[in-house]
Specification:
With 433 residues, the protein is of the alpha/beta class. It folds into 3 domains: 198 residues, Alpha-Beta Complex (2-enoyl-CoA Hydratase, Chain A, domain 1); 133 residues, no CATH class; 58 residues, OB fold (Dihydrolipoamide Acetyltransferase, E2P), CATH 2.40.50.140. The chain is built from 15 helices and 18 strands. Strand 11 and strand 12 form a beta hairpin.
Length: 433
């Protein structure tokens, strides 16, 4: 009986071991998908984020990188770097315009058609890939055939690599074509239309990408979280944020020069440094010249008794210079014209308000500095006695509706006019008029 019990116990332990091994093998074979969200402009930091996400995919054994796109576009150099990273990745990369209502314009469209699997959520838009640039006449399309043909070649080649519609890829650039999800699917630009990430992973399950069969149905979904350094760099590289930092820095330096000792100049230098880092140090020489001229004009205004033409001209120079400091034109900013106008408005409005406030503050500071001391203004003015005043008997006088204690070296009766000739502490010194 005891032998049978031992055998039963050994058999039970063996079964438990098999179950645990099966469970462990199942857990280890469970597919994982890393989701990277690109939900703003493509900046000099975005390609670093994509590169870091791809390294996480390899290090932590993810089977797929899914990039969600909701972007107006961004820098062309950064976009080409992202496309190169996608092509070099041994792990399949899915591009997904998401969530519903999102847009992936210009540079975002190039990224989408360069991914291994392209998908869109319902009611999303891609296209508007015609390059535009800032000029004296405003924001205008780039007509240089060399530039346009180069972009068309990239778009067509990426579409051809993934068996997508090359003609439509070209029309995105030459005609500013826009397509919604259903139209893009019908035109052969994307492969799937899905409402959610989970639904998309079910649809792509079984697809062979980069000689690997995707097993994504029911896969574990994790979201990429950039390091604090990358997150901070991504924040300050936003064109609006970097421009505002530059403006705050410039005005901080101006305020510090006009009113030393308050620390504004230190704040200004830090803000300018962060703004320049955000722009990738791609600084326009003309912009620097305009900003310096603007600072000089404001400095001249500080020497004037009031707010005049130098101050207004200085603000204009600084605002125009700040816009030029941030590279908004193609190829640094590969986005639709309407979005560029929105960005310029977002930059000009706060900088204009900041400029006006700063000049008002400077004006008040100068006004206070040039204001005569109160006692200096009182000397020679006339007051009227309320009490009798004698050499050893101070009394009160009324001056501009205020009561002041006063003394005199002579006897002065009530209700007599007196002249203020000095001040002894809080007491006025007067004499009979």
């Amino acid at each position: 009986m005891k032998v049978n019990q031992v055998l039963y116990l050994i058999l039970l332990l063996f079964l438990i071991f098999i179950l645990l091994s099966t469970s462990s093998a199942s857990a280890s074979s469970e597919q994982k998908v890393l989701v990277l969200e690109i939900s703003d402009s493509i900046t000099p930091v975005t390609d670093d984020i994509v590169e870091d996400a791809l390294s996480v995919v390899v290090e932590e054994d993810f089977s797929v990188l899914l990039i969600t796109l909701n972007t107006p576009g961004g820098g062309l150099d950064e976009t080409l770097k992202i496309i190169e990273l996608i092509e070099q990745s041994e792990v399949p990369v899915i591009g997904y315009v998401y969530p519903e209502g999102a847009k992936s314009w210009s540079a975002g469209t190039l990224i989408l058609i360069s991914t291994d699997v392209a998908a869109m959520a319902p009611h999303t838009i891609i296209g508007s890939a015609q390059p535009v640039e800032m000029s004296a006449g405003g924001i205008e399309p780039v007509e240089d055939s060399k530039v346009v043909n180069a972009l068309v070649a990239v778009a067509r080649e990426k579409a051809r690599m993934h068996s997508r519609n090359e003609t439509i890829a070209e029309r995105f650039i030459t005609e500013n074509l826009n397509l919604n999800a259903e139209s893009a699917l019908d035109a052969g630009v994307i492969e799937f239309v899905s409402q959610t990430i989970e639904d998309l992973l079910i649809q792509v399950d079984g697809e062979v990408v980069k000689e690997k069969e995707l097993r994504t149905e029911g896969a574990q979904i994790e979201y990429y979280v950039p390091s604090m350094r990358l997150a901070f760099m991504n924040l300050i590289s936003n064109p609006v944020i970097s421009s505002i930092l530059l403006m705050l820095g410039i005005y901080g330096v101006v305020l510090g020069i006009s009113n030393p000792g308050v620390g504004a100049e230190i704040f200004g230098i830090i803000a300018i440094t962060l703004g320049l880092i955000g722009t990738g140090f791609d600084v326009n020489t003309a912009a620097i010249f305009l900003v310096l001229v603007g600072i000089g004009l404001l400095a001249l205004e500080l020497q004037a008794p009031g707010f005049g033409i130098f101050g207004i001209s200085g603000i204009i120079c600084i605002i125009v210079g700040s816009i030029l400091l941030v590279p908004l034109s193609y190829p640094h900013f590969y986005t639709p014209a309407e979005f560029q106008k929105t960005v310029i408005t977002a930059i000009v409005a706060p900088t204009l308000v900041i400029g006006i406030i700063l000049v008002f503050v400077i004006y008040k500071v100068i006004e206070i500095r040039h204001k005569k001391p109160v006692i200096g203004e009182m000397i020679g003015d006339v007051a009227k006695t309320i009490d009798q005043i004698a050499p050893e008997k101070p009394g009160f006088v009324r001056y501009k509706g205020e009561y002041w204690k006063a003394r005199a070296d002579e006897l002065i009766e009530k209700e007599e006019k007196v002249e203020i000739i000095g001040k002894d502490g809080a007491m006025l010194v007067v004499k009979r008029v």
